[in-house]
Amino acid sequence: MALYADLHRHLGGSVVPRILWRYFKRHNPDMAQRFPEYPTFEEFYTRKRNTLDEYLELHTLVESVQTEQTLPYFIYRLIRGAYIFENLAYLELRYTPYLRTPEHLNQSQRIEAMTNIVQIVGKASQVKEYPIIISQILCMHSRLPYEVNKAIVELAAQMRDYVCAIDVAGGDSHYGERLDEFIDLYKYARSLGLKTTGHLYETPEGCYPELLPYLMRIGHGIQIPLKHPELLPQLAEANQCLEVCPTTYLKTGTLEDLYQLKTVFDRCFDAGVDIAICTDNAGLHNVRLPFEFENLLTQDVIDFHQLQACQDAAFRHAFAWPYKEPPASLLIGLLNDDSSEEEQELLSV
Q1: Residue 240: closest CA among 182, 200, 204
Q2: What is its EC number (predicted)?
């Protein structure tokens, strides 16, 4: 059995449509009345949006129900599905903790409440019957004030047992007016020894080379090989990995056809830039990681050799994978050890 790593999955977009619909049926009369039958909800939840901003509005729908009380419910089902249906051995789950705190609290109280959210997510992610290594990436947000984003960075540094890195999210076209703030925050994060990624170069409006030096990985980054291939040698030298999430670009209208990603993969491979294939929002897409692989293969975007290279790169660039090798290599080592013992026993007879 193959075992995979997903380095880019949002907590808000990870809930598959049927589980979210069932939750609404039981606990949210307004949504239950709006979508009395599941097919109409699935069509609404997973359909293509015109822009990234319109697409991101769906996150607010899920964030509103991912509270201190309900997070364990959603996370357990997320992990169960990831283990049984996706064969995940490793998952980095990212989200903005501030947006899971009670809205009636003032800003200072919500900042204090973030610690509890991270602890809840961390403890709920430890499910013995589904042994997946899970770590959190805390997202700063383009629409949150500097004080909150700085508190998110400091929280990540304080809770390293649960958190492996920080990110910035909220639509890459919105960073421009506050670019100096985010550069300052990333500098601060690196000074604290935090690992870093960031939603960047996802759309043509989200290209900020000033942020690149502070990132260890790049969330999406597809506009670099598409529009700015001159930057690829710089990425290769810095060992920066792109977190490419194929279905996202169709759902947000960023790309019209999956085959457009062939240029992304080909140019990155030629330049020696690693790519990890990820899901981003597996629930919003109703597409799991093995299907992302299959879609890329069947539409001739990549070949099997490139797929294997991307799967290996995901473990190599994982922020909290505790081993030097991916799971397949570890299993092969175990099998070889067992075979050697059996051969020695036979020789001794």
Answers
A1: 200
A2: 3.5.4.4
